[in-house]
Amino acid sequence: MQTTFSLAFTFLWSIVFYAQNIPLYVGTFTNEDAQGIYQYQFNTATGEISNEILAIEIENPNFLTYSPDRKFMYSVNRSKDKSKPDYVAAYKINSDGTFTLINTQDSHGAAPCHIAMNAAGTKIVVSNYNGGTVSLYNVNDDGSLSQASQVFDHNTENEKSHAHSAQFFNDELFVADLGRNAVYQYQLKNKEYKLAKPKIVEMLGNPGPRHFSISKNGKFIYIINEYGSSITTAKRTKDGFKEVDFDTTLSDDYKGKNSCADIHPSPDERFLYGSNRGENSIAVFRRNNRNGKIKKIQNISVEGDWPRNFTLDPNGNFLLVANRRSNNISVFKIDKNTGLLTFLHDTKSPTPVHLLF
Fold this sequence. Notes:
By secondary structure, the protein is mainly beta. It has a single domain, classed as YVTN repeat-like/Quinoprotein amine dehydrogenase (Methylamine Dehydrogenase, Chain H, 7 Propeller). It has one helix at 2-19, and strands spanning 21-28, 36-43, 49-57, 61-66, 72-77, 87-93, 99-106, 112-117, 123-128, 133-139, 145-153, 163-169, 172-177, 182-189, 192-197, 209-214, 220-225, 230-236, 241-248, 259-265, 271-277, 281-287, 294-301, 307-312, 318-323, 328-334, 341-348, 352-356. The model has no long low-confidence stretch (mean pLDDT 95). Belongs to the cycloisomerase 2 family.
């Protein structure tokens, strides 16, 4: 009887354990041991990462995005053969977690580094770092991408653009340009995006906007600055935006070189997180939901080197960091009351660049 009970308990525990697993996809640079896009299983109760599989072998899939129905995945890719253009790729997600390539399209720029989809799942935007261009694509019903419908070239005779990220918000499109030291605002008019503002706020001292986070209500934009190791907070006004806060991401006693990378809010938007490459830390901020201002409350080591990207699990219980140079993914427990992080463990992963739940 006891043996039967034990077997039944073990079986039920296994069902519960594996039911808590969700897929975690990892984009990589394939210049070391990495071969393409990887899938892991992430346990939302324990924070454990397990069961690495190669979802698809493909060159340098360094940033990923889902379709809203989770049937398709998209990536930006840098060609190893320099005689061929860099590109954006569309995949069908198979039932076993692997991908089938649907099609690719020219990224219309060099070194694409970011990709995002609009809420309707009808458009993709790609940021090309070296090309300084931003390309828009229509998404077909079968998940494939059409040729680029619009390409914005931010380069001028005197300034070289380095488009680093772009995001849709309703009928708006925002673009962070590291080279031009600006965040652009486009608006959808007659089915095309038109430039509304070449700079939503003045970025003094060339801090270098890289990534940004838009609050759910669209009233605030939090811009993490690569060169300035800082976050610029912009508030929407009747006439556009204005800067309302500016905060360092570094510890008071850190004096070395640093380059900021990524930024994400907690699901309830009470806290904001940013990554430091150099200090190799996550900076934690408490956010005032009323006026949008933030206050730094923690800098914690990423337990690795060069945290290019990080993400929060869908429940907001864990924060995961992709440490590109040390080839590991670090997992932190989030205290939902305070926003503070506690390191749990890490998992080896080949050249992780982007994490996506």
